[in-house]
Model the fold of this input.
Amino acid sequence: MKLTDKRFWVYIGIIILMPIMMSVFTGLVLMKGNFVELFHSINAELFLIWEFAYIIGGLISYRKIGYLNWIQYSFLCWIVVCPFINVLSFIWAGLRIQDGFTGLAYFMISLISWGFTIIPLMTGMWLYKKYHHIKGL
Done:
């Protein structure tokens, strides 16, 4: 992994977009289109946890990208990110939220949103694998 490798940065860009997809899914489906709530400080903290989990999971699974096809790699990255999102969201909900049901709701939003990200992750990995051999990239 070289920091001057453009393919690495394209890959990181795809990984960074996954929490944004989680937020869009949360705003559209789970909060019924109420996007104003996504900008509250509590939700911004949760977004940073998602971003951190995806970056760490993506960096861990990057080494296998050349050996697997795009479907296998998408599931590998998705499964590597799972424990990070579960544990970090659970710890965050326990520390930040005092009401048990509200903490449980945020934890469930986090898990449901993570489950949805397999679709954009597979799309991004398909595009990455399809175009990673281009010389300019």
